[in-house]
Amino acid sequence: MGKAAVITIDGPGGSGKSTVAARVAERLGYAHLDSGALYRALTCWALEQARWDADDLAGLVRDGALTMTWGRVVLHDRDLTKAIRTPEISAQVYRVADLPLVRKAVNAFLRDLAARRPSVAEGRDMGTGAFPEAPLKVYLDAHPEERARRRAGQGTGETPEALAERVRRERDRKVGGLRPAADALQIDATDLTPEAVVDRILAAAAERGLAHA
User: Fold this and answer.
1) Distance of CA 115 to CAs 102, 155, 202, Å?
2) What angle do CA 20, 24, 69 make, to 5 degrees?
3) Contact, 13 vs 159, CB < 8 A?
4) What DSSP line would sit under the chain, residue for residue?
5) What's the mean pLDDT in 168-196?
6) Which of 64, 113, 118, 125 is most buried, most CB within 10 Å of its CB?
7) d(C-alpha 173, C-alpha 34), whole Å
8) Does residue 61 carry a pLDDT above 60?
């Protein structure tokens, strides 16, 4: 596929990127690629197996043990879509997501998926790492207090302090650090509804010739 088939949405936790990415994908008929869900699934495996070796984790991605289809995340034929949304995994996912070898494998996996179907990819470095040539890159943010409120509403069990620390870590990473791409459309969603953000992204997509799939 050409680069004209990918929209990236990056931003910190609580910015609304998952909700927005899912709705943009639905409106355009694109696949929704949630990179965070992949890292969470790998973290779930690492916690259960007590194995945090980067080669082992990246191998799960490269060897096809990890799959993502229509929002479902499956590892070794086990559906982990709901199991990965726990405070324990939220607290430990950085140990997997910060491994350069794992990020390389996940980004390659996402590019392979996007080569098969137009996609909306969300995460931390979709516009800067996985899809630097994407025609539309979005960086979504919101005031820290608003992000903490939204995370609390999602029932993640993540405290405002834990969320702030996670975002700080993500922004400080040398590999796959959280930052807007140079040509990203930056949106402050603090006072916007998800639908208002979606409409703004769809308008930008139309301007760039990104059509309904």
Assistant:
1) 20, 34, 21
2) 95
3) no
4) --GGGEEEEE--TTSSHHHHHHHHHHHHT-EEEEHHHHHHHHHHHHHHHT---HHHHHHHHHTT-EEEETTEEEETTEE-TTTT-SHHHHHHTHHHHT-HHHHHHHHHHHHHHHTTS-EEEEESSIIIII-TT-SEEEEEE--HHHHHHHHHHTT----HHHHHHHHHHHHH-SSS-----TT-EEEE-TT--HHHHHHHHHHHHHHTT----
5) 90
6) 125
7) 20
8) yes
Mean pLDDT in residue range 149-176? 74
Are 8 and 131 in contact by the 8 Å Cβ rule? The answer is yes
User: pLDDT confidence of 173, banded at 50, 70, 90?
Assistant: confident
Which residues on adjacent β-strands are paired with residue 72?
69
User: Which amino acid is residue 96, in one-letter code?
Assistant: V
Q: State the pLDDT at residue 2.
A: 44
Instruction: Enter the tokens of residue 31.
Output: 């696949």
Q: 10 Å Cβ neighbour count for 149? A: 13
